[in-house]
Design a protein that fits this description.
The complex is a heterodimer of chains A (147) and B (109). Chain A is built from 3 helices and 5 strands; from the N terminus they run βααββαββ. Chain A has 147 residues and is α+β, with helices and mostly antiparallel strands. The two termini of chain A are 18 Å apart. The longest helix of chain B has 16 residues. The chains are: A alpha+beta (147), B alpha/beta (109).
């Protein structure tokens, strides 16, 4: 069984970052996701949402929808908290972006491109699809449910 | 996010508290660049009271570190813990920069 609740639809603006994070936290708390994961979840929400804002269409119809779900991971018997972001921007698969160079030399280091890298490092599973003219990105986090 | 700058004998201590995210991070770079342009050659950034950092924060840090390096100066970091330390490690900043437990160690080294 997959537990699922409301979604939140927001205009794709940096001003809505806090609302996006607050919604995810409320959902995570309701699903019993341990507090220890919340900052990582905040990070992934920020990276995904800001990515949508940066690639959003330029009219006033740029929107993002956030949806949270709790899914059992049948392979490990652990719970998975999954965040799904949908947006109506141009098709863009962040997972196909070349990995950033993590060069140790400050002079050669690019200052950008770390957002997707952080998402894939923090989440246990990520997927992307383009469906019904929307980008759909899901990031899942495994955790042990309390007895 | 709050940033305070404190002049020490050998450099400038930068204490950052709260959350460094896409909204707040540009302020860090702006404030650091002003201090660098005023002549700072050693900046020690104390992150012990920073709760949260995202890629926008890393971007501001990298831009500021490049700026001070271009003037012949150095940026060091101290007090990394929790989520901030993890983000530094997975992005490679933890090995690229000199990091110490305390600010005194960073100024003394």
């Amino acid at each position: 069984m997959t537990l699922s609740t409301d979604h939140l639809r927001l205009s794709a603006s940096i001003d809505n970052l806090e609302s996006a994070q607050a919604f995810m936290r409320q959902q995570a708390t309701a699903f019993g996701v341990p507090e220890a994961l919340h900052l990582k979840l905040d990070l992934v929400v920020e990276e995904l949402f800001i990515n949508i804002v940066n690639h959003a269409r330029t009219d006033d119809k740029a929107e993002a929808t956030i949806h949270c779900a709790l899914t059992p991971d049948s392979a490990t018997a652990r719970a998975m908290f999954c965040l799904t972001f949908k947006d109506n921007g141009s098709p863009f698969n962040p997972l196909e972006r070349a990995a950033p160079s993590l060069d140790n030399d400050l002079d050669k280091r690019q200052i950008g491109g770390l957002g997707i890298h952080l998402i894939t490092k923090m989440a246990d599973h990520c997927s992307y699809a383009y469906e019904e003219e929307e980008n759909v990105f899901t990031a899942c986090f495994a955790f042990d449910e309390k007895e | 996010m709050e940033i305070t700058f404190e002049n020490r004998e050998t450099g400038t201590l930068v204490l950052v508290t709260g959350r460094m995210d896409a909204v707040t991070a540009p302020q860090f770079e702006k404030d650091c660049v002003a201090v660098i342009e005023a002549g700072a050659k050693l900046m020690v950034v104390d992150l012990s009271q920073l709760d949260y950092i995202s890629s926008a924060g890393l971007r501001s840090i990298l831009a500021s570190a490049k700026k001070i390096k271009s003037t012949g100066g150095t940026m060091k970091f101290c007090g990394l813990s929790g989520m901030v330390e993890e983000v530094f490690q997975v992005s490679g900043l933890g090995t690229m920069f000199a990091t110490t437990a305390t600010a005194d160690e960073a100024f003394g080294a």
